[in-house]
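Quick one: structure tokens for this chain, please?
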Amino acid sequence: MESVVLYTFVGLALIVATCWHYIRQKKLREAWSAWANSNGWSYHPEKNKRRAKTYSFLNRLNQGHSRYLYHRIEGEHSGRKAEAFTFHYAVGHGKHRSDHFFGVVLIKLEQDFPEIRIHPENFFHKVGGLVGIKDLDLDSIEFSKTFRILSKDKKFAFDFCNTGMMEFLLQKKTTALELERDTLAIFRKGHLEPNRMKSALRLLDGIRNHMPQYLFQE
């Protein structure tokens, strides 16, 4: 009798979880569609493994397995191509598997740049791909204590993390960013929500505007 009750309870819990997930995804599709329409962007709700591979050069989007993105929007912002989506990857297998989701908002810059990663301590799980990349200590003790700065190009890292940039990012201590090639991306824990887009795009604008102009002339 107890086993029957237990199985019934588990079955009901699964049904409730499935319904909740369906309703949440439906609301998200509606919200993203409305945001894209009002801002002149396009919206692609489906899971997309191929598109995820497009950004596999970004360290944060090249870890784990079963990688895909969804709720993807793309358009133009401040005269630049921009894109945003929720990214998924898994670690482990079977009962040891864990699934991870985070939001990504990115813009395309005018030219390619060396790789640099800046994020708060303990923001990301420790993953591979750090070979040859050192955690740099900059002139600002507060900035170095607040963020990890990873780059193979020390000169570029110091140029990028100029005084204005450090002061700007210290006002936004949860910022996690990665720049490689012409792609400047920021990351948010959990699923990306439409109501976070405005602040995310403002943050990207601020980062781009604090990059020294001479970097775009080299």
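The chain has one domain: 41-216.
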